[in-house]
Amino acid sequence: MPCLARYRGTTRSSADPCRRPGAPARHGCDSASATSGLVLRCRRGQLRTRGRQPMTDGLRVAVLGLGGMGQPMAANLIRAGLPTVVWNRRPGPAQQLGAEGAEVANSPADAVRRADVVITMVTDADAVYAIAADQGMLAAMAEGAVWAQMSTIGVAGTERIAQLVGERRPDVVLLDAPVAGSRGPAAQRQLVILASGPEQVRDRVAPVFDALGQRTVWAGPVGAGSRIKLVNNLLLAFLAEGIAEAVALGAALGLDRSAVLGALQGSPLVSPWAAEKLDRIGRDEYGPQYSLALGLKDVKLALREVDVDRFGVAGSLAGQWQRAVDRGLGDEDITVITRALQR
Question: Mind telling me which Pfam families this protein's record contains (predicted)?
């Protein structure tokens, strides 16, 4: 079974990983630590991998799963000029993308038959497995095609999918490539792709990932991307909970909400993401960008991989969010926990 064996190092400059040793510094590159094992693509240009150039001619992409993330991602592929085939369990989102220029498939198998790169973006590992194994996606993929599994399915889920590919289609290249970002960044092409998998296909998928996000972080072999995604989403959960509890504390102390929000906005502690969440809280706007139910799912995925007793705060947060979901708030944005705390 493919598993996380080691991280790929880099000997390039930590200030500019795309610069050759001794060459002058260039602008527009992401930095990377020489010991971090992360390879970051240049913002202005493609990943520099042994002099190869990305191949874009005739690249055909299939996107399976057109929910809050998959639909804007597919739309960006269409806008980038990449021939795109789409499929969704409910036909409405696929038909909307058909009006924008996508080819609409009737089944997962039909969607992937002629695709060079296949993207899955669905709710959980069971949904990924059902599409791939039960609905014929994996069997229908072309020899040598790349499957970019971009759903957040955790470590065990990713290992399950890697085993499926290894046993049934070893001629298909699996990439584990979840994303950092929610619906807004997906629509604005501001996602960060947390990719992992064989180095030899990085240039090949670069035009696809470039159409979806602001940058791609290559983290190592299959499984590393999903691990980093759990780290990212646990931090996000803590940030959301901190915002909610701060606003709720202000209410408990008898402060006017607008005064609390005004004091927090512009604070050096508040990131642009947090500022946008505070603004939505101020308007009592809890429509889902990243739903509480999905946030809870991701925290639980992280806790499954560790000794829960060592991560007491995360466990407490999961319990609180579970109670809010049980009260019917799961389909709202994670910021709805603010409302739950004030009841």
Answer: NAD_binding_11, NAD_binding_2
CATH 3.40.50.720 fits 46-220, yes or no: yes
134 touches 107 (CB < 8 A): no
Q: Give the HSE-up count for residue 280: Cα atoms under 13 Å, Cβ half-sphere.
A: 23
> CA-to-CA distance for 121 and 134, rounded, in angstroms?
16
Quote the CA–CA distance of 51 and 200 in Å, as a whole number: 12
- Domain ranges in the chain with CATH number 3.40.50.720: 46-220
Could you tell me the two tokens for 130? 């059902």
Extract the tokens encoding 310: 């060592």
Note if 229 is an active site residue.
yes
Q: What is the C-alpha to C-alpha distance for residues 74 and 97, in angstroms, rounded to an integer?
A: 8
pLDDT in tens, 163-199: 999 999 999 999 999 999 988 899 999 999 999 999 9
Nearest-angstrom CA–CA distance, 290 and 332: 8
Q: In CATH, which superfamily holds the domain spanning 227-341?
A: N-(1-d-carboxylethyl)-l-norvaline Dehydrogenase; domain 2 (1.10.1040.10)
**Whole-Å CA distances, 190 to 24, 181, 187, 209:** 29, 7, 8, 11
Q: Token match 């008898």: residue?
A: 254
Cβ contacts of 201 within 8 Å, gap of 6 or more: 146, 173, 175
Report whether pLDDT(39) > 90: no
Residue among 229, 277, 297, 300 flagged as catalytic = 229
| Residue range(s) occupied by CATH 1.10.1040.10 in the chain | 227-341
Tokens in use for 204? 């090949």
**What is the tens place of the pLDDT at every residue in 293-343?**
999 999 999 999 999 999 999 999 999 999 999 999 999 999 999 999 987
Q: Taking the CA atoms of the chain, what radius of gyration do you get in angstroms?
A: 21
**Could you give the CA distance from residue 220 to residue 228 in angstroms, rounded to a whole number?**
10
